[in-house]
Design goal:
- There is one protein chain.
- The protein is of the alpha/beta class.
- The chain contains 23 helices and 29 strands.
- The chain has three domains: 247 residues, TIM Barrel (Alpha-Beta Barrel), CATH 3.20.20.80; 108 residues, Immunoglobulin-like (Sandwich); 292 residues, no CATH class.
- Helix 12 packs parallel to helix 21.
- The radius of gyration is 35 Å and the shape is elongated.
């Protein structure tokens, strides 16, 4: 056995690996890297194949990296040239080869060391590091840290007869200074099989622990050093099998995929451009350039790059493709290579199947076709089917030559009538890809007799709820001279609920205010509208006297407020609907049903009353008895307005009907259907069914036209709403609120798969 000046054993190395002290922290994180990947086909986003993506979403690249461990000392950056590797001839004579020992000799360039700060001259961002061997017997680890190195790969073994005697001290030095460290093995594929060398490597330091400080073991495979030829005398098939045996044995012994160090030139020659190793992190070597350039077959991205054979660090100069958080996650075992692809189209035409198209492949085996799982949501219900991504896609092959051009998919499900068609696509990872499946997202298509696509959407929004109310007012009332403006609290809904049908019936907007003063946007809009009068809804606790005084400078102010929300609703009803014979009733403890009823109540000339007790209370009974109201429509199910209330109203001689669905969205569509017939809603308002301010203002605007108001989830449109748009013959929508209230998917009627 060849060995250095100090004999070691596997047990000693293992004890050193596990003997790392706890790491302190410094508040200066590494910067987020600049992406460097092959561009995607035209019209599709470049797939992300970040080999260092953290397993925990909290550590993703768009968040700040955790603090780095602090070095035990803080020397000034070293100005001397650290120890570099000797010539290849010297290494050949010693039978001890450092990582990259053959690269400069075979591929060049024979350039001098990079003496400037590496990241200033590289076209990528990331975390700087180094790799060392026995040719750097004494490393000033504090100086390396001060120069910027945060990780190191250390040579452990070569073939099956060499162990670096300096490995233990180098490992300990890197550990003590706080670097993340790993071991590498210099392969000699013509001396033993791959599995034998893997076992030798593990026995002499090539282990791994999920501690965030130990890098995955590294296979260093490069040009032959013994005169056997570029590829160690092995055919591409034999070399591929040798590598497969090595990395497979390493995975079995350590529990993690080892990294592979090589170059595009060597790999493509010696493996025949084998493209089935993408599950293993790539450590690529290329000198004298600002980027790693073309990568070996199997990989679309790199994890580490050896960019120079000498420089500010001892040994070779390396960089990790990610920030410090991702480097640490990589050490924890987060070598994430999920399948990549693009979801291109989701289309449906009348009477024809719903079709989705795109492309996908798995980095672990670029030649294999992956399975595509499609979760469908159609008017017939929700189903799941699978297909294969094996269709011709020349554009994909042009962008990713190693993958080839046969990774497209086109999958269909039968026509199921008019309405929303949704499909979510998942690429199923190939066996052995521990990164798991990859989602390509969801798309929705909409079709009705009135339109072949989702109705045209106009977004009405402002910087906040007050400004959004102004935007709705300006859209509905572009000209000055309105009869009335209703002003309600923008901070709580109870007093404001009954204002929507009242304002709609009197042809005026609802605008919002704070209790202490009127926001400048609201006051400016009131002044623009030049109303004949202003109605303030609620008592001084809801809208203070100071705010009312501001408004009185524009037009006469009337306050409608009771002792509680129920009395306030009654006063609004008496003021705006003095001769009403019908009323709508909704719970005063929620807002969704009341707001859905607003436009319908206004269209039918009916007020909205609120319910707060299971039984018909004396105050409401007295109000109904004193008016001409003989019909009441309860909005909402029995869980929100008790059957006892309905029985009390019936006992008082009032005819009671109820409209209530299984959800607020179904109730919204059911009450809309009572007032707007088939094809009776070419234009509708869509507002959040989760937050009340936008829906309150929209209800007043919709009711004044009148147009239907339908409620939506924040990120998707319930199918019951989509079905209602088919019935109404809707061709355009006013979507109320910003994307934080209603996402962009609402514009395209993105269907809810649940609810």
């Amino acid at each position: 056995m060849r060995i250095g000046t100090l004999a070691t054993t596997g047990a000693l190395l293992l004890s050193l690996i596990g003997a790392s002290p706890a790491l302190a922290a410094t508040p200066e994180p590494e910067p987020t890297p600049t992406a460097t990947s092959t561009p995607a086909p035209t019209g599709t986003p470049a797939p992300t194949a970040d080999p260092a993506a953290p397993a925990d979403p909290a550590a993703s690249a768009d968040q700040a990296a955790p603090a780095e461990p602090a070095a035990p000392a803080s020397p000034a950056p070293s100005t001397s040239t650290p120890a570099a590797d000797p010539s290849l001839a010297v290494q050949n004579a010693a039978g001890d080869h450092a990582m990259g020992s053959t690269i400069e000799a075979v591929e060049g360039p024979a350039a001098g060391a990079r003496t400037i700060t590496p990241k200033a001259s590289l076209g990528v961002g990331g975390v700087l590091g180094m790799d060392v061997s026995g040719w750097q017997p004494t490393v000033d680890w504090n100086a390396m840290w001060a120069n910027g190195a945060r990780f190191v790969y250390i040579k452990s073994s070569e073939s099956t007869d060499y162990v670096s005697s300096h490995f233990p001290s180098q490992w300990a030095g890197a550990t003590n200074v706080g670097m993340i460290r790993g071991a590498y093995h210099f392969a000699t594929p013509n001396t033993t099989d791959g599995a034998t060398q893997a076992r030798y490597f593990v026995a002499h330091g090539g282990t791994w622990a999920p501690d965030g400080r130990t890098l995955p073991p590294l296979l260093d495979i490069e040009y032959a050093t013994d005169g056997s030829g570029t590829c160690w005398g092995l055919s591409p098939a034999a070399m591929s099998q040798w590598i497969r045996d090595f990395v497979g044995t390493m995975k079995a012994l350590t529990g993690i995929e080892p990294a592979i160090y090589s170059t595009a030139n060597w790999w493509n020659q010696c493996t025949g451009s084998n493209n089935t190793f993408g599950a293993y992190p790539l450590f690529v070597a290329r000198y004298g350039t600002s980027t790693p350039g073309a990568l070996p077959a199997s990989w679309l991205n790199w994890t580490m790059w050896q960019f120079a054979s000498s420089g500010v660090f001892a040994g070779d100069q390396d960089i990790f493709n990610g920030n410090y958080a991702q480097l640490q996650a990589f050490a924890f075992g987060a070598n994430s290579h999920p399948p990549v692809g693009a979801y291109d189209t989701a289309t449906v035409t009348s009477g024809q199947p719903f079709r989705v198209t795109g492309w996908a492949f798995d980095l672990t085996n670029l030649a294999s076709a992956v399975q595509i799982q499609v979760s469908w949501s159609t008017p017939a219900g929700n189903t799941t089917t699978t297909g294969t991504a094996n269709l011709s896609r020349p554009d994909v092959g042009a962008a990713y030559p190693a993958a080839g051009g046969t990774h497209g998919f086109s999958i269909t499900t039968p026509w199921a009538g008019y309405g929303q068609y949704g499909a979510c696509i998942t690429v199923i990872a190939l066996p052995g890809d521990r990164a798991g499946n990859s989602s390509l997202g969801c798309k929705t298509a909409f079709i009705s007799p009135a339109t072949a696509t989702a109705p045209a959407a106009q977004r009405l929004t402002g910087s906040d709820r007050f400004a959004t109310a102004v935007a709705i007012s300006q859209d509905r009332y572009p000209n000055a001279g309105v009869p009335v403006v209703y002003i309600a609290s923008g901070l709580d809904y109870p007093d404001a609920l009954a204002a929507a049908p009242a304002a709609a019936a009197q042809r005026g907007p609802v605008l919002l205010t704070t209790s202490s003063s009127v926001p400048s946007a609201t006051l400016t809009e009131v002044q623009r509208l030049k109303p004949q009068k202003i109605v303030v809804v609620g008592g001084p606790n809801a809208v203070g006297d100071a705010a009312a005084a501001q408004l009185s400078s524009v037009a006469p102010v009337t306050r409608l407020g009771g002792s509680d929300r129920y009395e306030t609703a009654q006063r609004i009803a008496a003021y705006a609907f003095p001769n009403a014979t019908k009323a709508y009733v909704a719970s005063g403890f929620g807002f969704a049903d009341a707001l859905s009823a607003g436009p319908v109540a206004a269209k039918l000339g009916a007020p909205l009353l609120l319910v707060g007790t299971p039984n018909l209370d004396a105050g409401t009974q007295a109000f109904l008895s004193a008016r001409s109201i003989k019909q009441v429509t309860i909005v909402g199910g029995t869980s929100v307005v008790s059957p006892l209330w309905a029985q009390g109203a019936q006992s008082a001689g009032i005819t009671v009907t109820r409209i209530g669905g299984s959800s607020r969205f179904e109730t919204s569509t059911q009450i809309t259907a009572t007032a707007f017939g088939a094809n009776g809603g070419p234009n509708v308002y869509i507002a959040s069914g989760v937050n009340w301010p936008d829906a309150l203002v929209a209800a007043a605007a919709a009711g004044s036209v009148p147009k239907p108001l339908l409620l939506s989830n924040s990120g998707c449109v319930p199918r019951t709403v989509g079905d209602q748009l088919v019935r109404l013959g809707t061709t355009s929508m006013k979507v109320v609120g910003g994307t934080d209230a209603l996402s962009a998917d609402v514009n395209s009627l993105g269907v809810c798969y649940v609810g």
